[in-house]
Design goal:
By secondary structure, the chain is of the alpha/beta class. The protein has two domains: 205 residues, Rossmann fold, CATH 3.40.50; 108 residues, Arc Repressor Mutant, subunit A (Orthogonal Bundle), CATH 1.10.10.60. Helix content is 48%, strand content 13%. It is built from 15 helices and eleven strands. The strands form three sheets. The protein has a seven-stranded mixed β-sheet, with helices on both faces. Strands 3-4 form a two-stranded antiparallel sheet. The radius of gyration is 22 Å and the shape is globular. The N and C termini lie far apart (51 Å). 37% of the residues are buried.
């Protein structure tokens, strides 16, 4: 029988992830029993001690076992840690050697939302793809530069290590894992029972671009400020480099190192964020929005918008603008 361990981190963590994941996975055995089949797995809550207080002591969780009692498991699921990430990682450092040991023994590991930080702290994600909540992408890149972060993805699957995007997208990873272990028909039944939108692939429509300012390169900060204040006009990399008294290649290199974007990509993201805000709350049509954010080529605007958000401008407006939806 497959053994699944759901970690109970120390300190603040997502009670929703713990309870809902346990409930959804446990329901698979109920489904199977209804078909006259034996249970597929055992699901246990695993912590560092027999009682763990979370949400600043508002709730207590009583794990089924502590790590020392679980010598071998098949799948470990790590819920989101919350609060100060540095302190959370320090408080949960005892999990790291256990996670590494389980993976080396053949277990798969899966992080939900900000659980990716604890998973990355093991070093097992170095050189692998991972996603996390889009709002934590900058902090994650800073802490774990060796990990290939893909924050637009809902799910990643890289050689036995899985991750899910932000917040409630954990449900998609749980269904994905059910399909891996129990088959597509059981995944579909689960999605229908819990009303989960199966097969979502991107969290791009939900991302709010906030820039990447957690760095100490003053020239790049000045370039970012200029772009954010003048995005509606024509901006070229050469002109920006001249303003900063830097060579183009030097500016590009430093800009990408500091922000994980090229200058052009950053400009696109700033413009698309402005376009999104206009489409969400304004009354301008798509053409007016396009001109207001500095585009004159309709095809280029639509292509870039869909690349960044996963939706066309019209689809985005219909999704988020209440007046347009009505």
């Amino acid at each position: 029988m497959i053994h699944i361990s759901i970690l109970i981190p120390e300190g603040d963590c997502s009670l929703t992830h713990i309870d809902a994941t346990h409930q959804i996975l446990s329901e698979i055995n109920v489904f199977l029993a209804g078909r006259g089949k034996p249970p597929l797995w055992t699901v246990q809550l695993v912590g560092l001690r027999k009682e763990t207080g979370i949400k600043k002591g508002l709730f207590s969780v009583y794990p089924d076992a502590v790590t020392e009692e679980i010598t071998r498991t098949d799948l470990v699921i790590i819920p989101a840690i919350q609060g100060d990430i540095g302190k959370a990682l320090e408080a949960n450092g005892e999990f790291i050697p256990w996670l590494v040991k389980q993976y080396k023994q053949g277990a798969s590991l899966a992080s939900l939302c900000l659980g990716s930080f604890l998973l990355a702290a093991t070093g097992l994600l170095d050189g692998r793809k991972c996603t996390t909540h889009w709002s934590a992408a900058n902090a994650f890149r800073t802490m774990f530069p060796e990990v290939e972060l893909v924050p637009d993805k809902i799910i990643t699957d890289d050689r036995g290590i899985y991750s899910s995007g932000g917040a409630l997208s954990f449900q998609n990873l749980v269904v994905y894992l059910i399909e891996k272990y129990a088959g597509r028909d059981m995944a579909i039944l689960t999605a229908k029972t819990f009303m989960i939108d199966i097969d979502r692939e991107s969290q791009s429509p939900f991302i709010i671009f906030q820039g990447q300012r957690e760095h100490e390169d003053d020239a790049v900060l000045k370039a970012q400020e200029f772009i954010e204040q003048n995005y509606s006009g024509k901006i070229t990399v050469d002109e920006l480099a001249d303003q900063l008294a830097l060579g183009r290649r030097n500016l590009e290199r430093r800009f990408r190192k500091a922000t994980a974007n090229s200058v052009v990509e950053y400009l696109q993201r700033v413009r698309m964020e402005a376009a999104k805000l206009s489409l969400e709350s304004g009354r301008e049509n798509v053409m007016e929005v396009m001109f207001n954010v500095g585009y004159t080529d309709t095809k280029a605007f639509r292509t870039t918008f869909k690349k960044i958000t996963g939706l066309s401008p019209i689809e985005y407006r219909q999704k988020y603008n209440r007046q347009a939806a009505v």
